[in-house]
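4.2 Preliminary Data

To establish feasibility before requesting continued support, the project team ran the inverse folding procedure on a target of 271 residues. The structure was first converted into the token representation described in Section 3, and no sequence information of any kind was made available to the design step. The complete token record follows.
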């Protein structure tokens, strides 16, 4: 495929990703504004799903299928299509379900496209702030069409980090607390907002200087990973490798800060 044809294809795919994220976001905003009581089901310990998740996912998947019926889909709640296509959409219709249930207005829609196993297109939409983050592999990262880049604070001491607590894997809490203790002692602060996708977007935009969490799902982090990388950052698993989509263990930051973060993470999670 020529570079020009590849660029055109990526732009077309990005347009669909962005529109799909906005379709999902409109569902989230409608339910939030209605303020109706939600039926909440528990999928696992501290892991919830509502009709909002399901309705948003249905809207997103339906839109993508209408444009690319031969593509595969991997979504959080119920949509699974595995035909062997080289194009796989990785979708979280509501990242921050617990926040949504409690009407804490930090949540988003995350849409990523993997091409031949590589995260190649990303769109994350925060409907409460009408904030859109998007990226295409080798095309930079953007927030509402303005190019973004990771921060460069120079040292951990000047950093504001983001994290998420291991609510699904509480048996791994002791190791996580070692990292939490380490970063509490070496940074200027830590924030836990409850949406990994937004944490990664804010890391890409230089609001947070780094992010780490364990036990996430691919749809939580696929889009955000591409945004951080296209913004000049590094994303790895806890051992500096590429298995974060498999393990759900992730560290994201600018190159210098990532290296400093890894020293603390590796102490908690030795080989």
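Position-by-position output of the design step:
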């Amino acid at each position: 495929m020529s570079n020009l044809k590849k660029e055109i294809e990526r732009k077309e795919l990005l347009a669909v990703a962005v529109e799909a994220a906005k379709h999902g976001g409109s569902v989230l905003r409608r339910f939030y504004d209605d303020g109706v009581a939600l039926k909440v089901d528990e999928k696992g310990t501290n892991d919830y799903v509502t009709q909002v998740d399901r309705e948003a996912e249905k809207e997103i998947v339906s839109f993508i299928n209408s444009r690319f019926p031969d593509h595969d889909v991997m979504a959080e709640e119920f949509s699974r299509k595995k035909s062997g296509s080289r194009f796989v959409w990785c979708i979280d219709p509501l990242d921050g379900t617990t926040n949504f249930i409690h009407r804490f207005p930090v949540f988003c829609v995350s849409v990523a496209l993997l091409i031949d196993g590589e995260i190649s297109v990303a769109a994350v939409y925060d409907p409460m702030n009408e904030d859109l983050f998007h990226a295409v592999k080798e095309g930079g990262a953007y927030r509402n069409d303005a190019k973004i880049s990771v921060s460069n604070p120079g040292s951990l001491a000047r950093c504001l980090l983001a994290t998420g607590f291991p609510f699904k894997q509480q048996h791994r809490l002791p190791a996580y607390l070692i990292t939490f203790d380490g970063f509490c002692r070496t940074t200027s602060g830590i924030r836990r907002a409850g949406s990994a996708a937004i944490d990664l977007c804010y890391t890409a935009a230089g609001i947070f200087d780094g992010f780490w969490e364990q036990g996430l799902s691919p749809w939580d982090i696929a889009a955000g990973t591409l945004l951080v990388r296209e913004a000049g950052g590094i994303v790895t698993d806890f051992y500096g490798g590429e298995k974060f989509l498999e393990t759900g263990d992730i560290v994201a930051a600018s190159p210098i800060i990532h290296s400093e973060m890894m020293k603390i993470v590796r102490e908690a999670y030795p080989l």
